[in-house]
Amino acid sequence: MTLPGDWEPDRLLPGYVARTLPADRPPPVAATARAVAAGGPAPVLTLVRPADGPVAPRGVVVRLHGYNDYFFATHLADAVADAGWAFLALDARRAGRSLRPGEVPHYQGDLREQGSDLTRAVAQARRTWPGLPVVVHAHSTGGLVAALWAHAHRRRGGADAVVLDSPFLSVERSWPRWLQDRALRPLARRAPLRVVAQAPSRYAARLAERWDVDTTLKRPQGVPVRAGWLAALRAGQRRVARGLAIDVPVLVARSSRSDVGHGADGPGLDRADTVLDVAAIAALTPGLGSDVRELVVEDAVHDLALSLETPRTTYLTALADFLHTLPR
């Protein structure tokens, strides 16, 4: 199916089309307002999908990326198409294809900013494929956003199911304690763009060695962590810790083990989650909703879809199986 209208060939992926839309106004949060006022154009979001897809799809998968990330994993779209589903990726505001000169990469002072972008993407999916189920597939920070979004939209306008690929549900044992709440919140109010952490990403560098990655959009040098963004992240994580009530099927996928903090030469770089603590994900998974299913993949990395061949195949097969369990 080729999309009409203002879809144009994607500038990064042959055989894909993209559409750029103005992002909705952000929530009235002081940190966000000051950060946006500090410079940069009005934010946009970008939707990306294969130029051709299943003629009569069973449903639509809407993909949301994580931090220091954008959509490039065409094999994920292929796996979704092989399962008979259409695919639509979202590069959220200030990320990936949506980043504009003068903007602060990946900054959001309230997670509802990306939540608003996800609402637009899901609405586009429903307009393009009316009457079909929509599944949100989200990774890492995007997984946290998607979980909160699905909870907020559980009565109206949400998805028919959610897949969370290594969702960033907690910083426990993953990030230093000093970056957390008591000192962070006043700093975020006073100086939301203050850099509180900055380091190269060996994980991103390793993925760039194995995949065709635009390193201006997924940066091996990392993206600075700013106080306003981290405060927004922690606010979302505290909400998850109190328990959510997502009322559609949720599949939470993660690696079987973590290898956080061992640096560039960590033994788990290709066979473990070197970004997040999977034990924290496991502890919070049951509290997400009424129908939560857990998938643990041996030897998977942080983004399960970018793992080595065997765990990647395990994950994509399980994803297809999950999609097949959903009613038309």
- Remind me, CATH topology? Rossmann fold
Shape: globular
Number of domain units: 1
The succession of helices and strands, N to C, reads EEHEEHEHEHEHEHEHEHEH
Determine the number of helices (DSSP H or I, runs of at least 4 residues).
Answer: 9
Within the largest sheet, what's the order of strands? 1-2-3-5-4-6-7-10-11
The description of the largest β-sheet is: 9 strands, mixed
Radius of gyration: 18 Å
The share of residues in helices is: 25-40%
- The number of E-state strands comes to 11
The proportion of strand residues reads 15-25%
Chain oligomer state: single chain
The secondary-structure class comes to: alpha/beta
Highest CATH level, the class:
Alpha Beta
- CATH homologous superfamily heading: Alpha/Beta hydrolase fold, catalytic domain
Per CATH, the architecture is: 3-Layer(aba) Sandwich
Average of the residue pLDDT scores: 91
InterPro entries: AB_hydrolase_fold, Hydrolase_4, MAG_DAG_Lipase
Protein name: Lysophospholipase
Question: Could you please describe the fold and organization of this structure?
Answer:
There is one protein chain. The chain is built from nine helices and eleven strands. It is α/β, with parallel strands linked by helices. The protein has a single domain (8-325), classed as Alpha/Beta hydrolase fold, catalytic domain (Rossmann fold). Strand 1 and strand 2 (16-22) form a beta hairpin. Helix 2 (74-82) crosses helix 9 (309-325) and helix 5 crosses helix 7 (227-241). It is globular, with a radius of gyration of 18 Å.
